[in-house]
Amino acid sequence: MQTPDLIKQNEPNHVIEVNNMVKKFGDFVANDKLSFFVRQGEIFGFLGANGAGKTTAMKILCGLSAPTSGEINVAGFDVYRQTDLIKKNIGYMSQKFSLYEDLTIRENFRFYGGIYGLKNAEIKERIAYLLNRLGLMHAADKVLKEIPLGWKQKLAFSVAIMHRPKIVFLDEPTGGVDPVTRRQFWELIYEAANDGLTVFVTTHYMDEAEYCERVSIMVDGRIEALDTPARLREKYQAASMNEVFLKLARIKKSES
Amino acid sequence: MRTIRFILQKEFIQIFRDKSMIPIIFVIPVVQLLILSFTATFEIKNTRLIIWDQSRTIDSRSLISKFDRSPFFSLEAYVETYEQGIEWLKKGKADQLLILDPSFATDLQMGEKGKVMLVTDAINGSAASLMNAYAMSILTDYNKQLLVAKYPLAKTAEPVELRSSHWYNPELDYKTYMVPGILVLLVTIIGMFLSGMNIVKEKELGTIEQINVTPIKKYQFMIGKLLPFWIIALFELAIGLVVARLVFGIPILGSVPLLFGVASVYLLVILGFGLLISTLTDTMQQAMFISWFFMVIFILLSGLFTPVESMPQWAQQLNLINPIAYFIRINRMIMLKGSAFGDFANTFYALVLYATSILTLAVWRYRKVS
User: Fold this and answer.
1) Closest approach of chain B CAs to the CA of A232, in angstroms?
2) Do B336 and B281 fall into the same domain?
3) B20 vs A: CB within 8 A
4) Residue B252, pLDDT score
5) Chosen from A115, A161, A164, A169 to mutate, greatest number of chain B CBs within 10 A
6) B132 is in which domain, residue-wise?
7) N or C: which end of chain B has fewer CB within 10 A?
C-alpha cells in the first residue's frame, strides 16, 4: 500500500527531493538508496536509532558531505554542482553545540549574520527580534559559557534561522535537554514553520515524532517507513510512535 | 571583503578574551629572547683547571701564573699525583689537567724542550677543542716570551705576523650572532603554533561544522584565520627588535622596512605550514606533536646553534626546504651586515616560491566537504 505522497515527485512545492541517494564509507553502506521529498513549510521528522544513518544523510543534504550516488536537490539546487547556493538557503544546527562559547550572544549572532552577508542594520534588527522572542534581550552581552544548556539550544536554533533560510536542518536538537525546554523548543519550531520555513529534524525521541507532519523511519541505512504519524500508527497497529519504531526494528531483525 | 572583516573581528575578540593568550603572545617571547640569548653561548669561560706541578720552579710558576691570569681559566687546585688529577676529571670537578714535567725548568735552561702535558675532559668535543685552543694560545705566548728573553737581538720571535680583523661582529660577541636567529624562532613559534592550533581547536570543538555549512569561501576563511597571527607575529618581531637594541645593544644596520618585508613573506610560509598541519590533523594534540617534530628539525638544521657548514652534505641539502634557515640567513645579513635586497635576492625568491606552494597546498587540502 503506497500512499499518494510517496509517488508524487518533481512538484514545485518540494524543497527537498532525493532519489536513490547512496553513501558508502569503504564497504559500509551508511545510506542505502534513500528516496523521499519534503514539502515547503513542512516539519519533516527524520527518525532512526543511533547509527541508522540519519546524520550522514543530513550532512549530505547540507553540503557537508559528498554523496556516493543519487539525485539530490535541495532548495531548488543540485547538491553536486550548486553547494554554495544551497548553503545560502539553508540553516543548520548540529548535534554538537557549535556556537562559540567564548563569545557573547550578540557576538555570535553578529558573526553568523555577517558571514551570511546580512547588512549591519539587518543584523541589529534580527538580533533584537530573535532575542526578544526568546526573552533573552537582557543577556545579549553574556558570554555563552555562562548560559544554561537549554537556552543555548534555543540560541543555536535562532542563529541557524537568522539569515531567513528556506530550510533549516536540525540534528537531534533536543539531546540532553529537560522536557520543559524540549517543549519550548518545539514551540519555536512551530512558530518558524508557520512563517513558511521548512524544518527537517532528526531525533530519536519518539514522542517528538508526533509533533512532525510527516516522518521517515530509518533502520540500518534504509528508510523503512514514511508517512504521517497517524497513518503510521494505523498501519502498524500501534498506540504510539515508539511502538511503531520498535515493531519496525523487530521486523528488520527477524529478516536478517 | 566584508565576510573577512567579520571573521577577523571574531578572531581578535577570541584571542584577546582568552586570558592565557596575552602572556603567550607578549611575555613568553621576551623572556625566551632574554634567556636564550644569554645562555646559548659558544664561549667557554672559566675552564676549571687543575695542575700537577712536578717541577716547582720559578719557570713552572711563571707558566702557571699565565693560566691563572687568563679570564678563560680558573685554577681549581694543585694535585700531587697523576691518579689524583684523573680522579678530579672523572668526578667532573675539573675540565683540564695540566702536567708539568719534573725536569721542566732544567730542560728549558739546558736548551732542551720543556715538557708539558694537557689532559682534557672531551665529553663535549667542541668545548674540549675550544679549551685546548685557549691553552695552546697561552703556551704559544709563553714560548714567544722565552725566545725573546733568550735572544734579545731578535726583535720578534715570529718572522711573519698575522693580523686578523673580524668584520660584522668585531668583538666576536656570540649575542650579536644569536639574537637575530632567536628573533626568527620567536615569530616562527607564534606563527606555526597559534595559527595551526586555532583551526584544529575549531575542529575539536565542532564549531567548524557550523562554519562549513555557511556559504563562506575557503580563501575568506583562511585569510580570516591567518591574518590575525600574521599581524601578531610581525608585532612580536617589532618588540624583539626593540629588546635586541635596548638590552643587547645590537644595532640594525640594514633597512627596517626591508626586514619587515622579508618577515611578512617568511610568515606566510610558516602560517601556511601551521595551516597545512591543521588540515591534516583532527586534534590539538596531534597538531602539536607534528608541529614540534618539524620545529625541532628545522631549528637544529637552521644553523642557529651550530654552523651549517660543518653539517654533513645531506643535512645541508635538507636546508633547501627549511624556511627557518632561509630567514635566519637573511635576518643576520640585514641586521649585522646591513645587506641590501640585491645581496640576498635569490634567498628571498626561494621564500616567495615556498610561501606560494605551501599556501596552495594548504588551501587545496582544506575541505569544507568530507
Assistant:
1) 33
2) yes
3) no
4) 86
5) A115
6) 47-150
7) N
Beta carbons of A93 and A99 less than 8 angstroms apart: no
pLDDT at B70: 86
Range of the domain at A189: 4-255
**Res. B172 pLDDT band, cuts 50 70 90:** low
Residue with cell 587540502: B365
Q: Using N-to-C axis directions, what is the helix angle for A120-134 and A179-194, rounded to 10°?
A: 130
Question: Which residue(s) pair with A227 in the sheet?
Answer: A215
B272 near B355, Cβ under 8 Å?
yes
Q: Which three cell numbers stand for residue A80?
A: 553536486
- Asked if B65 contacts B111 with a C-beta cutoff of 8 angstroms, the reply is no
Cβ contacts of B237 within 8 Å, gap of 6 or more:
B183, B186, B187, B259, B260, B263
Please say whether the beta carbons of A15 and A40 come within 8 A: yes
The model's confidence at residue B169, banded by pLDDT at 50, 70 and 90, is: low
Nearest to B34 by CA among B335, B248, B239, B299: B248
CATH number where B105 lies: 3.40.1710.10
pTM of the model: 0.79
ipTM of the shown complex: 0.86
The number of C-beta contacts closer than 8 angstroms across A and B is 79
Give yes or no for residue B30 having a pLDDT over 90: no
Per DSSP, the residues of B199-222 read HHHHHHHTHHHHHHTS---HHHHH
| Arithmetic mean of pLDDT, A92-112 | 93
* A54, three cell numbers: 540519519
Q: Are residues B303 and B322 in the same domain?
A: yes
Of B10, B18, B199, B204, which to mutate for an interface test with A (greatest number of A Cβ within 10 Å)? Answer: B10
Beta-carbon contacts of residue B91 (< 8 Å; ≥ 6 apart): none
